[in-house]
Amino acid sequence: EPEVTQTPSHQVTQMGQEVILRCVPISNHLYFYWYRQILGQKVEFLVSFYNNEISEKSEIFDDQFSVERPDGSNFTLKIRSTKLEDSAMYFCASSEASGVTDTQYFGPGTRLTVL
Amino acid sequence: AQKITQTQPGMFVQEKEAVTLDCTYDTSDQSYGLFWYKQPSSGEMIFLIYQGSYDEQNATEGRYSLNFQKARKSANLVISASQLGDSAMYFCAMRPNSGYSTLTFGKGTMLLVSP
Known about the structure:
The structure holds 2 protein chains of 2 kinds. Chain A is mainly β. Helices cover 0% and strands 49% of the residues of chain A. Chain A is globular, with a radius of gyration of 13 Å. By secondary structure, chain B is mainly β. Chain B is built from no helices and 12 strands. Chain B is globular. Classes of the chains: A mainly beta, B mainly beta. The interface between A and B is medium-sized, with 29 and 29 residues.
């Protein structure tokens, strides 16, 4: 069964460093998303991406964040200068379309720890 | 704005018994989708079941069913014949028809299944 994959599973970085989180969405999906979950809290939407551009972003997704689809399979989230409060689990998700009925399938997550 | 409320921080159930996890939502949209995800201790988000706001019948998927009461704006997850592997965090989420494709999550309910 097709699944969303994410690498790395765990990333440790120093405050102020840049990190890139990688995702491979399900191959026939067209819509891609990043969510984050701070430890013990609910999952929060960051950004959605379609047709090589951002379709929606939340207040969390400020200028420190960027997304890119560098090739036909990968979807990346870059944090330019990490802060302690960026420590969280980051989930990539994908869906075939963006309708009410379209299920978003999540990857296993990348746990980011900023020291 | 959409809001999902899960009032049960934790639930306990014995193996083979049924359990209901509560979810209420608030939206001004007439058309929306409701989703339940499972998050085991390993951290991944697993899609369980979907209910559309215009679906006349409650959704079922194996041992999972959704008790959808539109007038009360509730979408409770029922797990029948609980198994030890059902121990996990369970999140209710909603996607409205208006705007884009953001999923709004509740805070989750931790389910512990005992032998």
